[in-house]
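[User] Once you have settled down, look closely at the record that follows, and write a paragraph about the fold.
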Amino acid sequence: MGQTGTVNGSGGTDLAENAPEAVRIPKVIAVTSGKGGVGKTNVVANLAVALARLGKSVVILDADLGLGNVDVLLGIIPKYTIEHVLLGEKTLPEVMIDGPLGIKILPTSSGSEDLTHLSPEQKLVFLAELDRLEREVDVFLIDTAAGISSNVLYFNTVAQEILVIATADPTSVTDAYAIMKILSKRHGEKRFKLLVNMARSMRESKEVYRKLTLVSDQFLDIAIEYCGFIPQDDYLRMAVIEQRAVVDLYPRAKSSLRFLKLAQEILDWPLGTLPKGNVQFLWKRLLGDNDGAKP
């Protein structure tokens, strides 16, 4: 595949923006945490809105296959799921939910087991739909489930970038380390990005980063990049109660400004190595395609 582009400020080639339409490649980012209660889904929703505010086309895959709640957080009720696409009853555009500022949410079915027992015809239909979708997306955000289940590990291994969410809570730091350890030891992942959520100060967020790098430098062969923090913010809590993204409802709040800063930095991240991170490749492996071995 011929790929052209310009070198961005971070030394990478921004193919997603500069490639011809026929080879447009979205950034695929898995957002994970190792444990629940760290505000991961809130980060995904607000990051998506922030990217949309910067003029990008964003799709969220709610990859908690059974307990997904991106739609709940944004006060949206899905009528259809991916299952309807697989059955040939709906197209992806018909299944996707419209969110604030034009973001799209792709709601999943109740379990991944059904995805591995599809006929070849069903797989072809779904992959054809993905091909059309991929050409229209700049950033594809995967909101993984909490924990270290096989599905969580899978979605992390096929993304171009793994953004780990942690808080200052010691159990959150421990679980963030645990998921990086498993992904490193079992699946060869070597690069992670860290975002500290609900931090009371930059010092507190840097302390979380210090703790994780201290133990990872000693026991793991990985690199952790600090991506900043989202501050504790009353406006963020108020937006959750209103079932709105804080970036949309209170765009001048401290947390909103941090999300916008992170969104701009994400656009400067160099595009990862393909096929890892390619949307079709991601789903071909999850569907049990023989061309790709499951992790």
About this structure: The longest strand covers residues 191-199. Residues 96 and 118 are 21 Å apart (CA to CA). Residues 23-286 form a domain with the Rossmann fold fold (CATH 3.40.50.300). The two ends are 25 Å apart (CA to CA).
